[in-house]
Design goal:
Elements: H1 23-32, E1 72-75, E2 81-83, H2 90-98, E3 102-105, E4 111-113, E5 118-120, H3 126-132, H4 138-142, E6 151-152, E7 158-159, E8 165-166, H5 173-182, H6 186-193, H7 209-223, E9 232-233, H8 236-245, H9 258-272, H10 283-288, E10 290-299, H11 306-313, E11 321-327, E12 330-333, E13 351-353, H12 354-358, E14 367-370, E15 375-384, E16 388-394, E17 396-398, E18 403-405, E19 409-411, E20 417-418, H13 425-430, E21 435-445, E22 452-459, E23 464-469, E24 472-476, H14 478-481, E25 486-493
Parallel strand pairs: 8-9, 12-16, 13-19
Antiparallel strand pairs: 1-2, 1-3, 3-4, 4-5, 6-7, 10-11, 10-15, 14-15, 16-25, 17-18, 20-21, 21-22, 21-25, 22-23, 23-24
Helix pairs in contact: 5-9, 7-8, 7-9
Protein name: Ubiquitin carboxyl-terminal hydrolase 39
Family: Belongs to the peptidase C19 family.
Subcellular location: Nucleus
């Protein structure tokens, strides 16, 4: 019998498998050490779950659950927007419930993995950042009109930057055509493509007009983005700024008139950029502002006899007055369409030459203008031509009962329109060049107050013309453009 003491189990010290940490040396360093300056790649195992075809940053940046604009994150798996990333926030709940882990902060452009809540630093995500906030260098902007390079969208379709469709949300095609036309006015485009050009504009506190400038800049950068995920853009945020700032005068749920929108939009942008009445006070006036003299004289009432008319004409009230006024666009009046059908029992579509319409501005031809109690004869003389000339061809006339549309077709050349023919020799001598080329042509199809709008755009690098109607973009022969019912035209002065 063995009397030796029972075999004791060796005592295992806790520190054998858990190394003891000196709090002051190691733990404190682990928890409180400041982050190092050189960025380390924080690898995330979920990057392959990102669906780039679902990402759409054109819509308003607000949480899809709480509708708040503060701290909004985009889920890069399903493309929805959620607020916050702390526990119990909508983004955190979504990440746990749906197992969608990669999120992008729409304000700071930082990527995070939820619910683990760490920042992802990975250069493969730079293309997503660029789609959300495209940036352009000055060299890139200089080469925009020379580049013939096509871009490829995520779905494999090819598109030309600047020639992309704009989504029609309901009835905002009248806004889309104006925005497309303005996006091809070179100085305006170049100014808005670089945010630093207008970011230092000081506005009074609480002023929302600057929002219009920001949204227009964002829209132009998206239209000219060479690395977009899709070959079209939705002007949702831009239009919401328009509805807000025009006090609901322009809606995207009902059809409007592009000339009203264009006139309001150019003036609103001018004021938001702190523009004054001076010629060079904003990019809008530098591009579009011209000036003219208006000669106006009052006509005596028709019921008076010749003697009374003669004595009235001698009074000061009936003498000719001259006023110098600036303009952003010129209104051309169409001749009235024929009332009767011709001998072949059909209405022929009347045609008129553009130069006939422009004779209104030669300083000689007079036109009668009626107010409810007085009549005036007016003539117009252009004194300064702008570098971009907008012509508005007045097709719609309102009478007591309804709005009528004049279907007259205007014959116009696409190149080499010489506006010098309508200037006096003295004024013409002040202009180095008076030859203009068409860059955009807005067309109305269908009935007045209903109908649709489309726009023809010249792509400068290739010299090709494109027709854009909402999301539809097709190339078109320049000969076909002159057969359309032109409504607004933008001409560029040859440099």
């Amino acid at each position: 019998m063995d009397n030796s003491p029972p075999h004791k189990k060796p005592k295992i010290e806790e520190h054998d498998f858990k190394p003891k940490l000196e709090f002051d040396e190691v733990e404190s360093e682990m928890v409180f050490s400041p982050p190092s300056n050189n960025k380390t790649n924080r690898l995330c195992p979920y990057l392959d779950t990102i669906n780039r075809q679902y990402l759409d940053f054109d819509f308003e940046k607000l949480c899809s659950v709480s509708l708040t604009r503060i701290n909004v994150y985009a889920c890069l798996v399903c493309g929805k927007y959620f607020q916050g990333r702390g526990t119990n926030t909508h983004a955190y709940t979504h990440s746990v419930a749906e197992s969608h882990h990669v999120f992008l902060n729409l304000q700071t452009l930082k990527f995070y993995c939820l619910p683990d809540n760490y920042e992802i630093i990975d250069s493969s995500l730079d293309d997503i950042k660029y789609v959300l906030n495209p940036t352009f260098t000055e060299e890139h902007i200089r080469n925009l009109d020379a580049s013939t390079k096509l871009s490829r969208a995520i779905d494999g379709s090819l598109y030309m930057p600047g020639i992309v469709g704009l989504n029609n949300i309901k009835a905002n095609d009248y806004c889309n055509v104006v925005l497309q036309a303005l996006s091809h006015v070179q100085p305006l485009r170049n100014y808005f493509l670089r945010e630093e050009n207008y970011s230092k504009v000081k506005r009074p506190p609480g002023d929302s007009a600057y929002l219009l400038v920001q949204r227009f800049g964002e829209l132009l950068r998206k239209l000219w983005n060479p690395r977009n995920f899709k070959a079209h853009v939705s002007p949702h945020e831009m239009l919401q700024a328009v509805v807000l700032w025009s006090k609901k005068r322009f809606q995207f749920t009902q059809q409007g008139d592009p000339i009203d929108f264009l006139s309001w939009f150019l003036n609103a942008l001018h004021r938001a950029l702190n523009g004054t009445k001076k010629k060079d006070s904003s990019i809008i006036h530098r591009s579009f502002l011209g000036s003219m003299k208006i000669y106006s004289r009052k006509i005596p009432p028709t019921e008076l006899d010749d003697k009374q008319k003669k004595s009235l004409l001698a009074t000061e009230e009936y003498l000719e007055t001259v006023t110098e006024t600036p303009f952003l666009y010129l209104t051309c009046d169409l001749p009235p369409p024929p009332l009767f059908i011709d001998e072949f029992r059909e209405n022929i579509i009347p045609q008129v030459n553009l130069y006939q319409l422009l004779n209104k501005f030669n300083g000689q031809s007079e036109k009668e203008y009626k107010t409810y109690k007085e009549n005036f004869m007016k003539r117009f003389e252009i004194t300064r031509l702008p570098s971009y000339l907008i012509l508005y061809i007045k097709r719609f006339t309102k009478n007591t009962f309804f709005v009528e549309k004049n279907p007259t077709i205007v014959n116009f050349p696409v190149k080499n329109v010489d506006f010098g023919e309508f200037l006096t020799d003295e004024i013409k001598a002040k202009h180095k060049n008076t030859i203009y080329d068409l860059v955009a042509n807005i067309v109305h199809d269908g009935e007045p107050l209903k109908g649709t709008y489309r726009v023809h755009i010249l792509q400068k690098s290739t010299g090709k013309w494109y027709e854009m109607q909402d999301l539809h973009v097709i190339d078109i022969l320049p000969q076909m453009i002159t057969l359309t019912e032109a409504y607004i035209q933008v001409y560029e002065l040859r440099s």
